[in-house]
Amino acid sequence: MQEEWRPVVGHEGQYEVSDLGNVRSVDRVRGFPAHTTRAGVYRSAGTRALKGKALKPGPMASGHLSVAIGKGNSRLVHQLVMEAFVGPCPEGQEVLHRNGVSGDNRRDNLRYGTRAENLRADVHHGKRLVTVEQIRHLRRVYATLPRGEKKVLAKKLGISASHAGNIAIGRDYKEVV
Fold first, then answer.
1. d(CA 100, CA 110)
2. Sorting pLDDT into bands at 50, 70 and 90, what band is 126?
3. What is the mean pLDDT of residues 49-64?
4. Distances in Å between the alpha carbon of 172 and those of 7, 93, 136, 164?
5. Suppose 5 and one of 13, 16, 25, 55 were both cysteines; which one would form an S-S bond, judging by CB atoms 3.0 to 4.6 Å apart?
6. pTM value?
């Protein structure tokens, strides 16, 4: 099977993304204005041919890969793949990796889903210790517990007491309702 390339949405004619999760710039001609160099030499306006090249993705702390699209514009590779091959992300959804590997940006490994689905998948793949159901339970009962029992509950969940408190007040896992 051959790698399929499509334009990066919003950067058509400049960048392309493949169904295997690769990103590249394309051959293009760039114009530049007339200017005076530091040495005082006048340069007239013109064009320059730019050769396309593969972009090297950089890993984020989460394990996701990002690339620089233009100057100062970092984009997540999995979002570029989905926008190009599926379309814009529906409201209230995000990109999920079917196999739980954040750096695997093949089109076949990606789909749109809710944040809750993403959290459940993280638990299933062993990337997260607290389930959505545990978060909801913690929020329901936390305020009614005495301090010692709050620590016991946190220990049962395998998290620190401060993390449990942050979950209870909605500072952590804001997306879980």
1. 10
2. low
3. 88
4. 36, 19, 12, 9
5. 16
6. 0.67
Is 169 strand, coil or helix?
A: coil
For the chain, the 3-state helix, strand and coil shares in percent, each to the nearest 5, are: 30, 25, 45
Q: What angle do CA 9, 15, 20 make, to 5 degrees?
A: 85
The pLDDT value given to residue 29: 81
Residues facing residue 49 across a β-bridge: 29
Measured over the CA atoms of residue 102, residue 96, residue 111 and residue 6, the dihedral's sign is negative
| Residue 72: C-alpha distances to residues 25, 67, 116, 138, 167 (Å) | 15, 10, 31, 40, 33
Q: Smallest Cα–Cα separation from 21: which of 69, 63, 55?
A: 55
Per-residue pLDDT, averaged over 152-175, amounts to 84
Nearest to 21 by CA among 3, 47, 41: 3
Residue 92 CA: distances (Å) to CA of 15, 70, 89, 112, 122: 27, 27, 8, 10, 18
Cα distance between the two ends of the chain: 42
Give me the DSSP letters along 37-84.
Answer: -TTS-EE--EEEEE---B---EE-TTS-EEEE-STT-EEEHHHHHHHH
Q: Which of 97, 102, 164, 92 is nearest to 130 (CA)?
A: 164
* Chain Cα centroid distance, residue 92: 15
